[in-house]
Amino acid sequence: MPDSRFGFQQASAIDTLLDRDDVSLEAVLDEDDLLQECKAQNTKLIEFLQGVDVLKRLLGYVSGQIEGEERGRFKYPYIATEVLCSEIWSIVETCTSRSSELLLPFWDFILDTSPEDMMSKINVATHFVKINAIFLSKKPDEMLEFIQSVPNVIDRLLSHIQSPPFVELIFRIVQLDEQPGNLGVVPWLSSQGLIPKLIDLLSPTQKPDIHLVAADFLKGIIALSSPSPSSFPVNPTTMSISGGDPASVLPISNKLSRELAQRDVIVKLVDYALTPLEKIPATTSSNEESKETDGSAIESVVSSLACIIPVFIELIRKNNSDFFEPYLFHTLRNRLIQIRQNQQYAREEITEEQGREELENAMKEIAEHMGLVHLGELISVIGSRLEDFQKLLKAPRTSIAPMPTSTGQVVPLTFERFRICELYAEVLHCSNMALLNRQPGSGPKYDDEGRLVGGLVALEELAKVATGTQDSPLQPEDDEDPAFALGERNEPLVSSRRSISSDGSSTDGVSSDAMEDVLEEVHFDDDDLSSDSSKKATPSTSPPSASNLNDPISASTAIDAPLSELSLQDGTPRSSQVKQIPSPASGKTVSKPETQKKRESSIQNGPPRCGDALKQRFLDLGIVSTLLDLFFDFPLNNFLHNVVYDLLHQVLTGRVEKGLNRELVISLFRDSRILQRIIEGQRKNDEACSKPKGSRVGYMGHLTLISEDIVSAFDHYPTDVIGILSTYAPRPEWDEYVSGKYKETKDKDMSQLAGGKPVVGLGLAGFSTNFSSETRRKVDEGDDTSAKDTQKEESGPSWSAGDDDDDANGGSNSTVSQES
Question: Which of 175, 309, 672, 774 has its CA 20 to 30 A from that of 800?
């Protein structure tokens, strides 16, 4: 045996095997050291494995076209997959360069297998997806070109959507759009009709399992294409230093999300969710089979609604326009600054027209890649069908027969009604977005596909929105620019100073100096913008509306003050310019500024905005009252309580100076009788606790939070609103509740657990353990210091004082003490 110390190494078993002329692939696959030799990049092995015939057999074992004998039936597919996924670059190179000969038969055999058979061969699907995922990561351009050449590839992949590995493969194809170089994956998927085909899978005629997979896939696409702080473009100065191309660092295109928000898609989804049972095809069979079929039909219809509503919720949460418009401006600004820098340092001179044309083309490219997901159609369609959703809340399609539980017979809420309540809370969040309450004709313009139109002119309007210099949509200035005439959302601006061509580019009106002002003077601090964005994009809370940004709520709460002290006092107007108007509830007069009334009239004269239209439907149908009924009817369902509290929190913390937010608050006190319900809920809780082994009612925690919002609202609401709301307060029950049970609960919540931090005696010699009760338990550090002083007085001088004296004498006494 040669000695490795002298540079001699023993030939591996693979090398010995490959030296034979009649070596077979199966013999190589049987070798135990095969995968180790692949990692070691064995030259002979690589030369053998990159052969076309060998690769055909490897792919055949993976797909099941070639079945090994009893010994290799399970081993060969696994080993073949690991070999194809190894770090042998020539294998990927050969497969992609000769895809029609190797990959196409491999894909055809897998995709032509029936979904039922593929579900029973989950290992085959897993190996198939694993190999293609490796190939996509190593050769994205070549693999995308091959996938696009496969006939009806999207339809064939979606036919296996019940198999999780195929869902992962489609998702990896979508993620190819993140690759540098803009491969155009999302536009190709859009041309193949991916979104409409996924929408069809949510039909009530499909199985609930397919509903769940399709909904999860749609939510994954929405989350992948939504802007986030981590996807902000890097600083243009950094890109110029590193030589990077800004176009190559753009986030994934949101074109698929924009398709999902189109009106025809929303209408189709809402129709699916509200499909009556009568429209489900009936079967002519025996009674037992008919009952089973009816049960499956109900399950399918309810499953369709329960999976569609989370898609709506995800679309709203991930596409907040209050966050996206600053994000879009930030991206455009960085891109245009980089282009201007390249123009300045270019060797060849370019004219101003050429430079402007390059900027316009860059604007058009980014606007096509990153459009606005306009949620106006979603709010409009859902608002028009709220009456149908209300019917399902009162008469659900699923059974509501009492069910036995550990606490007795309980009527179920049903998943169907819970999802509808979630939808109500989320669309109310959406209705508060600034874009949906913007005056028609003002702000940036977007076309039907959500693309920013207007070229460089639109960047000025976008800068006003991004920097907060544009007037609030709920408070337009009296001297509003007449150029912003009322019109449709997609109608171009009509102004003597600006004009927009048919292709969306600016034709005149913006000088180079003005462009420099937009690009250089208007800027964000990246850290601040990222931190603000992360706050707005938190999954657990919905982003605040633009109408709430400039109206901070006082943190202090007047707990001890009765409601009468918070009401409006006659003869004490809050403004010098007021007009007395009668209150609709009590006939009293309340103060209202003239300028506010003028602004309200200017808003009311215009066409209704979709945000206000939805709130008006909430008022007409009494949706808040319906949710409160469910809140108290299901005292054990904390999931429902959290959703209802979220909606009430939006209503109570919104701006109430004017508009339909004000009407929602008044309706909450007048029609929903929120104060009376809180008092009644507290009374029921007291009765439940007074019983033997009684416990608190399940909704009391959220009821206290609602009460806190109401008390805080009376602390910061305008006096005219307080005057109206105070007429609907039960006296003196509400004042007694606030000063009694509510204050007691809040004090208990604010108290420290276990009574505070204990002070424990040190137990050393010379210390007294006869502490008083006041010195045994102290709360803060100041009390701890006083406790130590008390201990010193009772126990005499401490050891530390003696040590200090010894140190002053040179430390001799200290040394003697230590030795003794």
Answer: 774
Is residue 745 domain-shared with residue 814, that is, in the same domain? no
Q: Which residue has the tokens 């202090």?
A: 556
Q: Which pLDDT score is estimated for 754?
A: 75
Give the chain's domain count: 3
Say whether both 630 and 687 belong to one domain. yes
Residues 424, 621 contacting (CB under 8 angstroms): no
Q: Does a structural domain hold residue 382?
A: no
Taking all residues of the chain, what is their mean pLDDT, rounded to a whole number?
A: 75
111 in Cβ contact with 160 (< 8 Å): yes
Cβ distance 723 to 567 under 8 Å? yes
- Of the pLDDT bands very low, low, confident and very high (cuts 50, 70, 90), residue 453 is confident
Please count the other Cβ atoms lying within 10 Å of the Cβ belonging to residue 197. Answer: 15
Q: How far is CA 511 from CA 122, 328, 492, in A?
A: 62, 22, 20
> Which residues have a Cβ under 8 Å from the Cβ of 169 and sit 6 or more positions away?
128, 129, 132, 133, 157
Tokens in use for 751?
A: 């108290």
CB count, 10 Å around CB of 354?
A: 11
Alpha-carbon distance of 646 to 706, in angstroms, equals: 9
What residues have CB less than 8 Å from 557, skipping those under 6 apart?
Answer: 708, 711, 712, 715
> The tokens of 792 are what?
């010193």
Residue whose tokens read 């108007």: 581
- Check whether residue 794 and residue 737 sit in a common domain: no
Q: How far apart are CA 466 and CA 477, in angstroms?
A: 19
Helix (H) or strand (E) holding 48: helix 43-49
Q: Are residues 617 and 691 in the same domain?
A: yes
pLDDT at res. 285: 43
Domain that holds residue 15: 9-179
Q: For 403-434, how does the pLDDT look when each residue is reduced to its tens digit (9 = 90+)?
A: 888 878 889 999 999 999 999 999 999 999 98
For 149, other C-beta atoms within 10 Å of its C-beta total 12
Single residue among 135, 150, 179 that ends a domain in this structure = 179
Task: Please name which of 86, 75, 91, 170 lies closest in space to residue 123, comparing C-alpha atoms.
Answer: 75
Contacts with 567 (C-beta within 8 Å, 6 or more apart), sequence order: 719, 722, 723, 726
How far, in Å, CA of 640 to CA of 45, rounded? 62
Q: Quote the DSSP letter at residue 13.
A: H
17-34: per-residue pLDDT in tens?
888 888 899 999 998 889
- For residue 191 the two structure tokens come to 């041309």
Higher-scoring residue by pLDDT: 513, 501 = 513
129: left (phi over 0), alpha (psi -120 to 50) or beta: alpha
The answer to whether residue 277 is domain-embedded is no
For position 195, what pLDDT does the model report?
A: 95
Instruction: Convert 674-696 to b/e letters by CB count within 10 Å (16 or more is b).
Output: bbebbbebbeebeeeeeeeeeee
Q: In degrees, to the nearest 5, what angle opens at C-alpha 375 toward C-alphas 372 and 379?
A: 170
Run of H or E including 500: strand 499-500
In whole angstroms, how far apart are CA 125 and each of 62, 150, 760? 9, 18, 65
- In angstroms, the Cα distances linking 817 to 270, 795, 813, 814 are 87, 21, 6, 5
250-274 burial code (b ≥16 CB/10 A, e <16): bbbbbbbbbbbbbeebbebbbebbb
716 and 579 inside one domain: yes
